[in-house]
Design brief:
Chain lengths: ~375, ~375
Amino acid sequence: MLPGPTNVPDRIMQAMLKPIINHRGPEFHKLYESITQNLKYVFQTKQHAFPITTSGTGIVECAVDNITNPGDKVIVPVFGVFSERLRENITRRGGKPIEIPTKWGDAPKAEQIEKTIKKEKDARAVAVVYNETSTGVTARDLPSIGEVTQKNNIVLLVDAVSILAGENLPVDKWNIDICVGGSQKCLACPPGLAVISVSQKAWEKIEKTASRPYYFDLTLTRESDAKKETPFTPAIPLFYALDEALKMIREEGLDARFKRHAECAKAFYAAFEALEIQPYSSPEARSNTVIAINVPSGVDGAQARQIMKNRYRVEIAGGMGKIKEQIFRIGCMGIVSENETLTTIGALENALNDLNYKVKTGAGLEAARKIFH
Amino acid sequence: MLPGPTNVPDRIMQAMLKPIINHRGPEFHKLYESITQNLKYVFQTKQHAFPITTSGTGIVECAVDNITNPGDKVIVPVFGVFSERLRENITRRGGKPIEIPTKWGDAPKAEQIEKTIKKEKDARAVAVVYNETSTGVTARDLPSIGEVTQKNNIVLLVDAVSILAGENLPVDKWNIDICVGGSQKCLACPPGLAVISVSQKAWEKIEKTASRPYYFDLTLTRESDAKKETPFTPAIPLFYALDEALKMIREEGLDARFKRHAECAKAFYAAFEALEIQPYSSPEARSNTVIAINVPSGVDGAQARQIMKNRYRVEIAGGMGKIKEQIFRIGCMGIVSENETLTTIGALENALNDLNYKVKTGAGLEAARKIFH
């Protein structure tokens, strides 16, 4: 129950055992086309969508490097570890991050972005983490942010690594120019792949970007995409897995998938309210895919997680960065259902009791069960 | 029988099905340590060796970007598609490639490198493709090249993507500072991972390199390595596969593995001599891991490969770049043995005969069998 890598269904794991094929041959072309068609469904886009062999941080770097020239200003709200990484990527590229500092646990607002755009008229892009995995925060103002960037003709880059396929994210409708996701989160796939969507407006900027890196050059990816290939050797077993994962998403349907994630999240938050354990994020910013809660005072978080893992066979994460020991993070992603939700809540209740922290045993489970029934 | 991806033993494929674990937990630490220990054995190094989730081209970019500052001169012999890519990586990084043009099919010589170093006294590095996958050429002067760079205190970067674990390559003994390999070649692993060794001399240069990229920053990799982790989410199933592949290499032993590759290569070349089919590469440069031969005149190479694949179930590759339709390339890599060698030779004899190209049927097989018995 980590906020990635998440549990992977057997059907997706088994898909990795298909033969290692020539990545320049017709069998691969068929696999590649199936993946990109279904990726467009997941991104809700009619534009380009590609799989790339790398991690979440790698695909964010790819997006930043393709859209940013050294010296370019990029507006970036910073409200957790992954938006810090986004800022770091802009700096390493030689860009100038125009930071919008945001309290950890809160989400950036469209009006802050708009005000900053008015001040920094030559900004080239706005880069936003849609779901901050480190704080359990979703930037629900994203559609309004998209309206602002669209009106001002600025590129909008969105890091959706830990939310893509877990909550509604129609990239065309919301005017998102580059959107990136990870395989090992809500797609319920093994780690090792990342995915990216690119709009026509983004291509116009990318084509004018100087000295792109090689492995992450999106114009090479687009060229190979026309041949149903990747520019460089792909992680073939993971491509099979992603293909299967995307087929499962189509079978379930995006709406049903979003509803399932939202219902499990609601059950988690109801359980923690009943147990008087506070979410870390502010109420309007609470993520449906990463549930972050404060470690109850007097409890050793690392020890509680250890007990959950060893005695109750449920692994959750601690915090990251400056709140490392302060929170628990639960991945509510991918194949999460009533079963995983209740098992996790029960394991936490038990672990806290084992540590002599008095929780009302069963109260969390009772509150969660009411959401499901 | 492609020059990568190569055939992967079931044992390695099955390893991918192990549970998707937390890449920040003790189970992963154990896996990571097993991989890096065995990688050091394969690189024959006491220095650092890391696995990174990317392709061969990606790991070459990683090596170049960590060692090169924008403006730096890097000496690079160019004698095929992958040395062209190496040159391209230097250019994209903002470096100045000092090219040593070498005829395709031939290998660069240590004396050319030495002469160029004397002329370009401020060159920062020498970058050499040890095995040109596009021409079937091995740069057998590599130990002498290492002596030259060592004497001149210049960093030596070696692209060994298609030869690592297929032929002797003791990186410490040969004074190689950065050496890169791919998972899907002689390691007999699925594609998606790359490996890299880094010497103390290389670290001294890397630490002084400006504005390294993020995903490929080797100093972050070294920091995480000390914790037995990767800096960013790794492709866990492929890490399991690599671990198993490296264990199989230890069980066989490097010397036996090199001997097996050399024997199969000898059989291939003997067969083609008997069939009067010319190798593309010059005799002293012939690779033991990529066998490149001229398509016999009058034969349509693509058609012959199609027949081999569809009728005789053996897939080999055509050429790349300017010799695309001119040669056949056979991967003599990984698990290659007498069985695969004879099957491939037989399939080619049959396909050529099917195309009414008169080869002495059986002559190739007979010559090859003599090598094995």
